[in-house]
Design a protein that fits this description.
heterodimer; A: 218 residues; B: Arc Repressor Mutant, subunit A; 2 domains
Chain lengths: 218, 199
């Protein structure tokens, strides 16, 4: 396993732990956590903060029959029922297990990649909040420079890219500030595959990339 | 009668009653472990009486109507009963474990309105890790949050209770998105330094 150099901001992990991140971003974080034990620990801290806050909530009494009702429910539902979460199939191939269901258990080369621009292909993924997509950047291809009016989370799944913030390899996550502009370039002989979640349209610089925006759908 | 019990229990944890929340946290963890072992209903009720009214309060803040909140609390507590054998006190406090159950139920409830929404099973892999910093002393945490700059305290509240994204919080508080992120970052670091257990 490669060493991970780039992690989500703690403010992102707090929202994730709180259940307040958009679903598309939560999925990207979940895929990063599979690789990153440091962030699993940070997530646990953020969850522990949340639970302490809940402990300090002013309690709201349950209605009169609730306690008897729950005892009844315990009677009906035997222990060791089917309530336990279904174990995920073991991870195989290059796809993070959190992503396998969404991809219908296909590998990256079995997906229908749509060409966006020379050297750039994407697979749009279903999510209810924000945009979620896989992006494949051919070796040496440079994306148009762009900023963000919102947040963008980019997780490298395969290959690597370099931008103004550094070099990003498999497992690395770039949690871009809204003020940062970047221009990623796939920097090895191998295509770079990223999982990207955005919550607002990207801001491209220059006329041509702006005209491309509808095609990116970002 | 059950109401009376709940009220008695609540007062136990009010500030200034002498019961340290640290002890109660350890006690709750051992209650959960024992629950898995002995399947005792009275032990379950001790856990229920403490957590149910707090989870109800939490879910109402997240936006649930009182009756829905109660329904989800019952579901969460039933999960506690059924799944307590998977609770590992090395990896989480009882309170954190129960909080994540309620959070996931709430996330999955939201899918009723947005069927495309990804489920908690997609977004929250059960890959636990020993916690880096434990915020176990909830009384002290409450005090420390009161001492934070007002905006930082508000940000924490917004993230954990209002369910809003950073962008939505920025719009509502009329501050830049970057300030939401940096405010949360500063608040977390401060609380971690002042309160963090295992460092």
């Amino acid at each position: 396993m490669t060493i991970i150099h780039h992690h989500p901001d703690i403010s992102t992990l707090m929202s994730y732990a709180a259940g307040s991140l958009s679903d598309s971003m939560s999925l990207v974080i979940s895929c990063h956590l599979e690789h990153c034990s440091d962030c699993r620990q940070r997530r646990a801290s953020a969850e522990s903060l949340g639970s302490s806050l809940v402990e300090e909530c002013s309690p709201v009494s349950m209605s009169t029959g609730a306690r008897d009702d729950i005892l009844q429910m315990l009677n009906i539902q035997p222990h060791q029922s089917s309530a336990a979460p279904i174990p995920k199939p073991p991870k195989h191939g290059e796809v993070p297990s959190a992503l396998q269901r969404l991809l219908g258990h296909a590998e990256f080369d079995q997906l229908e990649w749509k060409t966006l621009a020379p050297g750039m292909k994407q697979v749009a993924l279903p999510s209810a909040e924000g945009k979620l997509k896989l992006l494949k950047i051919a070796p040496g291809t440079c994306l148009p420079s762009h900023g963000h009016s919102g947040t963008e989370l980019t997780l490298v799944l395969k290959g690597s890219y370099t931008d103004e913030c550094g070099r990003f390899q498999a497992g690395d996550l770039e949690d871009l500030d809204p003020d940062t502009k970047h221009q990623p370039v796939a920097d090895t002989h191998e295509a770079c595959i990223c999982l990207i979640a955005t919550d607002a349209p990207l801001k491209f610089e220059g006329l041509v990339p702006r005209l491309l925006q509808p095609f990116f759908g970002l | 009668m059950s109401d009376a019990l709940i009220k008695t229990d609540n007062t136990k944890f009010e500030p200034g009653t002498g019961q340290s929340p640290g002890q109660s946290s350890a006690q709750m963890a051992s209650n959960l472990v024992d629950l898995a072992r002995y399947r005792s209903r009275s032990q379950f009720l001790v856990i229920y009486d403490f957590f149910a009214p707090r989870l109800k309060s939490y879910l109402i803040m997240r936006g649930a109507e009182s009756s829905l909140a109660e329904e989800l609390v019952q579901e969460a507590m039933l999960s506690v009963w059924r799944r307590c054998d998977s609770f590992d006190p090395e990896k989480a406090t009882a309170s954190t474990w129960i909080f994540t159950i309620a959070r996931n139920l709430w996330i999955d409830h939201l899918r009723k309105f947005k069927p495309d929404r990804l489920s908690s099973l997609d977004c929250y892999e059960d890959i636990s890790e020993p916690v880096e910093t434990e915020f176990t002393d909830s009384h002290k945490l409450k005090q420390l949050i009161k001492n934070l700059p007002c905006q930082q305290a508000q940000l924490i509240h917004q993230v954990y209770f209002s369910g809003k994204t950073h962008r939505e919080i920025a719009d509502e508080m009329a501050i830049p998105l970057g300030s939401v992120k940096s405010g949360l970052r500063l608040a977390f670091e401060k609380l971690r330094k002042q309160l963090g257990g295992n460092q």
